[in-house]
Amino acid sequence: MNYMTADEKIYLNGESGAGEILTEKGTLYQADKSAKTIIWAEGSDGDTSLFMKNTDSEDPIKQVDGIQSLLYSSSDYMTLVAQKQNGIYFTENFSEPEKLPEGIVNVLGSCCGSIVYNRQDGDEVNSYLYTDGQEYKLDKTINTGIFMTDEAEKKAYVLILENERSVPSMYSIDFKEKGAMIHRDDDVSEIYSAKDGACYYAKSTDIGSSKVDLYCNEKLVESDIEVGMAWQTEGSEAIWFAKDLDMETGSFTLKYCEDGQVTEAAKDVSSAKLCADGSAFVLTDYDQTAQKGVLSLYERGKLAHIDEDVKEIHLPDIAA
User: Relative to the CA of 13, which of 73, 123, 196, 220 has its CA 20 to 30 Å away?
Assistant: First the structure.
């Protein structure tokens, strides 16, 4: 077990005073049991060092020194872009940092040891892929900041505002082909997820509408879903979404799409909490005055009653 005590000591595998002390004074960034890594920072603003320890091996602790500010980090902190005293540097898996070209405006995202960023070229801002020590200019400038990665396919999906269009177009970036870009669709207002070759996104020609159409890989999944109300958990291939939102009560119909098949899970849902195994806890028939409803579990195509007079569901938030 990894944790940090009140005195800023970080211990590994044990209670305070009993385990291995990794640092006397540090800031814990991440303790990932699945990846078996612990990452922490030491130092002051403008001169920080990041450290990484593999908790399942005797490998020495790795570190990156002299960080003035962290410009980008992947969710697992294995890909970092940092401002140091003499420039901006990139490192993957805490390897020796590589100095990047000057003029970087922002880092958009990363995938499989590569990063994508915008860089100032004279009066223009262009997008670049940086991989294996080489920089490749992309065909289009990513001007929205929307960047969704599909690690399995080694691709990213981005939104780009083009010409006079009020709603962006969606392009894919192929990391295996030095950043080759392919136009995927127009009028894409939001990308929900990109996973194992399936990219779910919303389309709408009316930027102010409360309804959008749900698509997967250029194919319509469901029309008129609620804007911003689609979710996917890390351990499931299904995407869940809300329809028929009642503006007075806030209740909606909960549906999901899996393997191209749309299924209705429950009606009159006031809140839902999704689980990694593809099941969902739902609160239905909610009485706004009494502030209580019926709790059920949707699992394997069946809605099973759990309890009544339930005020709220206490699980990690997916839908509110």
Answer: 73
Q: What amino acid is encoded at 7 in this protein?
A: D
Q: d(Cα 195, Cα 12) in Å, to the nearest integer?
A: 33
What region does 268 belong to: left with phi over 0, alpha with psi -120 to 50, or beta? left
Q: How many CB atoms sit inside 10 A of residue 52's CB?
A: 20
> pLDDT tens digits for 149-197?
999 999 999 999 998 778 999 999 999 999 999 999 999 999 999 999 9
The ranges assigned to domains in the chain are 1-100, 234-320
Q: And the tokens for 5? A: 């005590």
